[in-house]
Amino acid sequence: MRARGERILGALGGPWTFGGQAAADFLIADESFASVTYVPTVDELYATLDDGTADAICVPEQTLRTGFHVGIQSGLLDAPRPLYVLRDLVHAYHCSLLLQDEQTPLAGVQTVLGHTGSLSQCGPWLAEHLPDAEVVVVHTNSLEAARTVLAGDGTIASVGTPSVAEELGLHQAALDIDGGSTGNYWALSATPELATRPDTLVVSGRFDPDVPLGDVVAGLHAAGARLVTAFARPSGTALFEYDHVLRFRGAVELDEVERQLAVVPTARLVGAYTA
After folding, report:
1. Which stretches in the chain have pLDDT values below 70?
2. Whole-number Cα distances in Å, 93 to 100, 116, 125
3. Domain harbouring 46, CATH code
4. For the chain, how far is it from start to end, CA to CA, in angstroms?
5. What is the pLDDT of residues 224-235, one digit of tens each?
6. Which residues, other chains included, contact 187 with Cβ-Cβ below 8 Å and sequence gap of 6+?
7. Which of 46, 118, 177, 255 is most buried, taking the most CB atoms under 10 A from its CB?
8. How high is the pLDDT of residue 1?
9. If you ran DSSP here, which 8-state letter would residue 274 be given?
10. Which pLDDT belongs to residue 116?
11. Per the domain annotation, does 258 fall within a domain?
């Protein structure tokens, strides 16, 4: 990892995408990040941590409308090498419905494209205003979805940011169609960076009746941290056995946190930072 103040943050698509704009927020919030590098797909985003292109990546952890991002949570649990949460921040989406130009009729839209996170925030609006349109999740990013609109025949729309509309010259047929939705984003790294006096902890692990989740919660509560969110996924190998990603809040001492977790063999501290 590069020296603090020189680190590179990876993001999806470009500065006009939702992830790109969240990455820009990280640069403001954390002066250790100097710049952002962009890649077209999620797989390539994770690959930047392996090839050294980025020191950390910007990914959505959960959203107001749909809750936990299962893919990102599972990535933290299943990655071939350990990943760590360096910090988090909340980003407002401000989704727009983008059409080819001002002459394109909304009633003529047959297909709406978008990326998973932002598109899922707009379900109620799309169901009300474009009930007959096919909603398609793209596997690249919202910038590529917008480019498809630009090159299309006027029957395709996309969900994107106001800035991508300005960049490509698309028409914003409707603004803030997510109804004020927000997302919490993580900066994930393959290198741990644990604060000595954090106020936010992220813990992952597999727990069952023999290694109970309650031991982790009780131990960290004794250290001064309270459980605030819990992602759970069945392990698929045993009944009552779950993989968890847990977030705790509270001013704590790292030494005490590590002491409490040491008695739970499957628990792993994957984040300790100041929010």
Report:
1. 1
2. 21, 13, 14
3. 3.40.190.10
4. 21
5. 999 999 999 999
6. 9, 26, 30, 33, 56, 57, 58, 85, 86, 87, 88
7. 118
8. 66
9. -
10. 86
11. yes
